[in-house]
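Review box. Two proteins, two foldings.
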Amino acid sequence: MMRPILISDPTLRDGSHAIHHRLTVEQISAYTRMAEEASIPIVEVGHGNGLGASSLQLGESLVSDKQMLEVCREHLKRTKLGIHVIPGFATIKKDLNNAIDIGVDVIRVASHCTEADVTQRHIEHCRTREREVYGVLMMSHMAPASILIAEAKKMQSYGAQGIIIMDSAGAYLPEEVKEKMKALVSSLDIPVGFHAHNNLGMAIANSVAAIEEGATILDATMKGFGAGAGNAQLEVLIAVLQLTGYETGIDLYRLLDASDVAEQNFITVPTISSSSIVSGMAGVFSGFAKPVERIAKQYNLDPKDIYFELGKRKVVAGQEDLILEVAVSLSQLR
């Protein structure tokens, strides 16, 4: 009997990082139609950092959250509409309630891997509004399994119906994924999932390692379109799962056709650059790729030096201001 795996596709969210949040209404509309035809279970949409994150500091979205969600809602019937929510960027009263009123089905409430406390109000509110809600622990490579379990249990107690562990820096190797997944799956009463990045070329291998230890939810994007060196490539992942005895409900033929169309229209296929490799080695948030490239050029620095320094300082998502601080410090040392 084939084992079911729930696939969530953040192409229209994580991929937004790769193009400075410049997705157009036409691109969003076309992609959601193709996702529906390929029977992708969940499509996540929004600014790369999630609902309410469009700003001068993080990059302004070309299309507002409201318009993105309305366009997706129009086209998604069987495919569920998902959003990524980081408390602090997204308020309950303004952002979250508006998204729920538009018809969001799945809400992922995220925090840094040691700060689950900040998700309590958002998770509890989503449950009162009768939405499917998951807790997300970002930059999970920075905490040992025991800490991840403690933080995940907090989210479970708030009402989260599943926990997603993000490899936000693309820093994991398969053995580390196995160790943490095994610990989480055996300690929680709710499903566990994994979100991979490909900075070290391990996104598919790490995703497979996760399900071998009991994960039942995987994230993947079309052509790997995402921050840094991109995510686990959706078409490859579905093919591998099909070959190894897992059922996703996704029509592989339609998915392959859709991936070609998406590449022709808006997806920039990510590559593993020198900077991406260093980013993974240093454990730096993949979403920093574009600002690091820009600031390194501005100060005539090697982006690799900036990544290693950010890694030493254990900088996390949301601390984008420190990229500039590091660049200034390095330039003064020359």
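Next protein.
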Amino acid sequence: MRCGDFKESYREDEEIFQSLFVRICLAVLFVLLIITPFVASSYVLYIMNLIGIAIIGAVGLNLLTGFTGQISLGHAAFVGVGGYATAILVTRLDMPFWFAMPIAGFVSAGMGLIIGIPSLRVKGLYLCIATLAAQFILEFVFVHWESMTHGIRGINVPAPRIGDFVFDTEKSYYFITLVLVILTVGFARNLVRTKWGRAFVAIRDRDLAAEIIGINLFRYKLAAFALSSFFAGIAGSLWVGFIKVVTPEHFPFSLSIQYLAMVIVGGLGSVLGSIFGAIFMTLTPELLNIFVSSAKQLFPGLDQFFIPLKEIIFGGMIVTFLVLEPHGLAEIWHRIKNFFLLWPFSN
């Protein structure tokens, strides 16, 4: 009896689709994702768009924090740079959304390069403070550079369009989000298998040893910041095109914490973990909202009790999860997969 999935070469071990079963599962998943907008409600598609945007941002942050070991508390600010860059290019220069989006990604990547310069000199908590400063500086710019950002009033952005077709519904926008998620995940999954991905991991595990074996720390750390910020900029651009307005309230410090929670809960150093974390952090508050609404109807006199209860449950779930499963949802997925691969000899 064949038990397990054995590899006979390094190339086989590094393949993305490692077995026929995995290819079939991904093909079924892809078909389901294509069918979903034709059978799901607008609310479900709205949530799926939010998840898709969160996945793109979380994958970017995981490349920086999970693979390279550079902790960032300013990821939401880079998302905001991408959002504002898109809004300004579309409204001031009449640039099509499709050209504004990649440019916004590069603008955000340029900002990431500037913020990443201190990464050669400082790391750990000191780098956290540097990125935290970037968060508050950029928030200040969003609010007070009124001639460009319109301050707290924000900028209204027209929906993306191709010819006469306008992507102004959850259903039509879903396909934009889906394509970008596939491109982002595919790029990140391939990147971690290359020389650049191995250099990122070497720097994360031991930067001094990585430098001794010839890895240019400054170049690779800056590249990680630029890549992470580029994906953040794309997520911000996608967000702006989806809700059609951008204001400073969309990119608070709490959003940076949420992105960090996504990669920690999902699994640091795992592209799949970024997907799991984004789904978990987006769906859990929505499910808690449904729970609180139902509880309010059952106990109408306890409204003041249920409002903070949602935040307590959400925070408690994350803390409990991290204590019981510090390697994230990706590790749970690997254990389940290995159980069936090794069955009936698995414990």
